[in-house]
Amino acid sequence: MELKKYKVLLFEKIKTQITDWFENNLSQKIKKEEVYRFLHSIKGTAGTLQLTGLHQLADNLILDIEDKDEKEDWDKEALRNYLFDLIEMSYEYEHFENTIKQQAPIRVENAPLVQLMN
User: How far is CA 40 from CA 23, 28, 89, 97, 118, in A?
Assistant: First the structure.
């Protein structure tokens, strides 16, 4: 099953939400319920797509929200700090294949091979 397109959609969703909260939102507060739904969605989707680290991180953030039992909404700076690891990990997952491709040695097809025997 090809999961790549769903991974792309997940990372687009994350970027869209982060942009909406931190760049487009004129309000200084973000509702706790919005943050919870966002993390819950990431947790479920990341688990389905076998993005284990992202799934576990989202789960830990959800548990942290539930443990705090705060009723207050998030101010932008506090939320940005709270989601920093998630944003960073999402970026790493999204660009992982490109990093691997850049690190892979280039092999010329018709280059002579030398076999070393010990």
Answer: 22, 23, 16, 25, 56
74: helix, strand or coil: strand
CA geometry: angle 27, 28, 30, nearest 5 deg: 85
Placement of tokens 């929200």 in the chain = 65
pLDDT tens column, 42-62: 999 999 999 999 999 999 999
pTM of the model: 0.75
Handedness of CA 8, 34, 45, 91 (dihedral sign): positive
The most distant pair of C-alpha atoms in the chain lies apart, rounded to whole Å, by: 70
Q: Is 58:19 a contact under the CB 8 Å cutoff?
A: no
Contacts of 58 (CB under 8 A, 6+ apart): 39, 40, 42, 43, 46, 86
What does the domain layout of the chain look like in residue ranges? Answer: 4-101
